[in-house]
TrEMBL record:
It comes from the Bacteria. Residues 59-182 form the NlpC/P60 domain. Gene3D superfamilies: endopeptidase domain like (from Nostoc punctiforme). One of its GO terms (biological process) is proteolysis. The keyword Protease applies. This is NlpC/P60 domain-containing protein. Belongs to the peptidase C40 family. It holds the Pfam family NLPC_P60. The keyword NADP does not apply.
Amino acid sequence: MKKTLLLTGAAAALGTSILFGVVSGNTEPAENDIAVLQGREVVFEALPAAPAVKGVSTSQASSKVLDIAGQYLGADYLLGASTSRTDAFDCSSFTKRVFSQLGIELPRSSSAQAQIGEAVAMDELQVGDLLFFATSGSGGVSHAGIYAGNGEMVSAQNGGVKYAPVDEGYWADRFLFAKRVS
């Protein structure tokens, strides 16, 4: 899409930062010389809108992950639950189920899920990021949850699928890291 811009004295006062397109015409202005263009029309090619950044949650995707996770609130906790079940989950079968409904295939175990995606700092969490915790004596990844915003996660844990705070108490003490997947 071609656009036309008329440079005036006010634009010239902005300096070379106004030069963002390809100048067309019979003469080429000197590099960084806006004064040469003052009062002239400049035709430039407009760039298309930047594509969405892969892996960054949008409000629509964030809402969708919570809608899907919410379908399973109250489902039983069952260690080793089959990924085909929807009445009972362990932590990783739950995250796998929710993300598969978003078109994202995760590995079956929480430790394998922890190996994919991009690391995210705790202060940069977005709804839908995966959270990983050490809940066994090994100190390695043994629990996964989905960040739900406002310092909470939704996960399959003792007591079933539910929301729990991650910024204090039990989960805060066991938090290892977060990942963003797409």
